[in-house]
Amino acid sequence: MKRRNFLGLMGAAGVSATLATKAQAGGNVHFEGYPGSRGVLFDATRCIGCRKCEIGCNEVNNLAKPEKPFTDLTVLDTARRTENEAYTVVNKYDQEGGAPVYRKIQCMHCLEPSCASACFVAAFAKQPSGAVTYDESVCVGCRYCMIACPFEIPTYTYDDPITPKVIKCDLCDANIKAGKISVPGCVNSCPKEALVYGEREELLKIARNRIGANPDKYIDHIYGEREVGGTSWLFISGVPFSEIGLREDLGVTSGPELNSGALSVVAMVPALWPLLLAGVYGITRRTDKINTQEKADAVAQAITETQDKANSDMKAAMERARNDKEATVKREVAKALEEAAKAAEEGDVEKEEEGA
Amino acid sequence: MTTETVSKKSLLTPFNVITGLILVMGAALTVWRFGWGIGAVTNLDNNNPWGLWIGFDLLCGVVLAAGGFVTSSAVYLFGMKKHHAAVRPAILTAFLGYLFVVIALQYDLGRPWRLPYPFVVQSGTTSMLFEVGLCVALYLTVLFLEFSPAALEWLGLKRLRNLIHKLTIALTIFGVVLSTLHQSSLGALYIIAPAKLHPLWYSTYLPTFFFISAIAAGLSMVMLEGWLTHKPLHDKMSEEYLAQHDDLYFGFAKGASFVLMGYFFIKVIGIAVDNEWNLLGTGWGQWFLFELLGFVLLPSVLYAIGTREKNLKLIRWTSLLTVLGIILNRLNVSVIAFNWHLPSEMRYVPSWQEIGVTVFVCTMLVVTFKFIATRMPIFYDHPEYKDEH
Question: Closest partner residue to B47 among A123, A152, A255, by Cβ?
């Protein structure tokens, strides 16, 4: 790694540390691995499938001896994966009209490990040495790391009821740090120099040189240089990688990067949801209040209108009654007067008749 | 029928006999699991670290308990006040749902007694699972508080009950925030595994898919439960609950129809964004279309018809269809379409013990629900707190 990149990286690390989150969503920071970190280069054109690396791993890590001895090469006839008792395995891939190709697999020690990103107790860590290590003392046993690992490497001791744990290669980090060995067990026991242990930057140069020197022998690709953001283990091969059990559809995006988008939204939810929901609640209450007020107003208005109408009706009725009464009185008076006049007239006639 | 005659008759009912047998089997499986390890009772292996206990107990358990936040927010925040009587059954279901999700999780975790470690020993804050864990823990607390007034009324602890009752709105808002986060984060768990989940189900929109479908699931679960509890708990239901019951169905069915239609659209957008149309012609594509058309688009249309024609029966059956569809979706993401690239002999099929534990946990949930709903004011208002909405 260039010095400039390293300083930039350290600066970014400082910033992200203060932000208390390792996700760098939307940032333009690209982690290219710790400077001077080590890895292993595996050259499939050199591997002879002798399983010596498996023996070396088994001995260095004090693993249980397998049922069939390591010298039994018929084991290679069936495809195998890493197991609790085998941090690394070699598989044989038959080629049409040619010698079979062998491929060793173990933890790839990603530069930005998915397992570490997935672990909710941060039991996994990418060490500056290059190794991805696992801390059993905090592991809850959720096995999300196994879901997350694109290479399907970690295994679990399912049959242990009390202290089950995840198991995977640690690039012999513990043994090397303790000074017991200087090179990983597998690398140390390879008789054909198919494995080279060293600084990743150096390994990339070696790989490029080998490909450059023998372009007909090698596929022009270093598997692990960019896959899932880059891995500390690097593979070169004479046959396509998908033919030796290395998936070529994993992409170049690291696990943490895949997650960064979703993680970046997380903070927005508790920040904005309460505002929105309280707003909706406020609007609902206000609407209720306005509705209640409008209802009350309408009722009041209706009452007033009804009362006014009743009053005016009453007034009209009274008026009518009074008019009726007056008319009756008038009529009665007129009638009385008429009768009186009639009576008087009749009296005069009688008088005239009497007087005649 | 009074509760007394029920309890006298109930000792040898078919329900009790079957429940008893399941509980005995569950107890035996529990001893087996914790005495001999996960490997002794499950078909989980190094290729398939998550099985039925995560796919059904966790993912389906959480999504089917979404009725709590959906109903409480609809009633308290979005102004559907007249459906007030539906809140308590929904909150109780959600609380028990989450409680038994956490209980079921104990079986799946290698060292369950370390479950608090992410919060008290060492936090992996970059993990989607950390977020799920934190939100579920907090939401379980919120649901407990939201449910507690019913228990406190039953116990006669008036002052504490009134204190918590005052927090209703704050708890509801907090509940929606937490539900949004962990419902979506359960989908986000799989964002880190694009190489293992079939591309038709894998999408960077997974969190949105999970959240929107959780709303549809919540609405449908409230209706389905209303249907299932109607007969056995009828004598516990208040007139208010029963009177607004049909109306609630029409309101929720209408809502669910729209939400499912929205969910259908974003699922199609998910295919369009990743340009995966060509995959629809494959066998997996047909399985995907079966889920999308039969369990998303169809219930959306059926809900709409049911609402328009006021067809209660159609709405009830549609709620069952929707719930089955959500279960199918979660199982597709976590089990069926997960590790689709592995040869068939390496694929995971749950063991009978795993299914047994799942049935055991579900049975405990039903028994607990029945115990509480027949004793506490869930489907009716406590006489001392009537008219207090």
Answer: A152
